[in-house]
């Protein structure tokens, strides 16, 4: 679980479809990763290796992209391809049908952030 800017990441070595990938992340106390900055994307690309990885961006019926945490995607990066589920390939972010099998990328708050949230609830 490498860490970056308050988050920890898990890069799977197995493949599954998008929904099963999200369930696998939840079983680890995480979710399919949301990516909010170019620095974070650069960090992830450095660690992910050769495999394609699902992450937490999915297109709903109305054609808008949504993160697994329920927030709308603000289109700060281009998602190529015509599918409803996004993944990271070698060069960029693309999308494909959600039932195809790929590796997956989870993220969760790091231990310090989790401790701080418990110690100082808002």
N-to-C series of helices and strands: EEHEHEEEEEH
Q: What name does CATH use for the topology?
A: Mannose-Binding Protein A, Chain A
Quickly give the CATH architecture. Answer: Roll
Q: How large, in whole angstroms, is the Cα Rg? A: 14 Å
**Quaternary structure of the protein:** single chain
The percent of residues in helical segments reads 10-25%
Total of domains: 1
Let me know the number of strands.
8
Structure description:
- It is a single chain.
- With 122 residues, this protein is α+β, with helices and mostly antiparallel strands.
- It has a single domain, classed as Mannose-Binding Protein A, Chain A.
- Helices cover 24% and strands 28% of the residues.
- It has 3 helices and 8 strands; from the N terminus they run E-E-H-E-H-E-E-E-E-E-H.
- Strands 1, 2, 3, 4, 5, 6, 7 and 8 form an 8-stranded mixed β-sheet that branches.
- It is globular.
- The mean pLDDT is 89.
- InterPro entries: C-type_lectin-like (IPR001304), C-type_lectin-like/link_sf (IPR016186), C-type_lectin/matrix_domain (IPR050828), CTDL_fold (IPR016187), NKR-like_CTLD (IPR033992).
């Amino acid at each position: 679980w490498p860490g970056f800017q308050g988050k920890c990441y898990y890069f799977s070595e197995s493949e599954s479809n998008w929904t099963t990938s999200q369930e696998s992340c939840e079983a680890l106390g995480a979710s399919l990763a949301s990516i909010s900055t170019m620095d974070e994307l650069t960090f992830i690309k450095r660690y992910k290796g050769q495999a394609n990885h699902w992450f937490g961006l999915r297109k709903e019926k109305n054609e808008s992209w949504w993160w697994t945490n329920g927030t709308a995607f603000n289109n700060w990066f281009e998602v190529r391809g015509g599918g409803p589920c996004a993944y990271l390939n070698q060069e960029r972010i693309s999308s494909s049908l959600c039932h195809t099998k790929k590796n997956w990328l989870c993220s969760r708050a790091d231990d310090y952030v989790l401790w701080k949230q418990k110690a100082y609830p808002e």
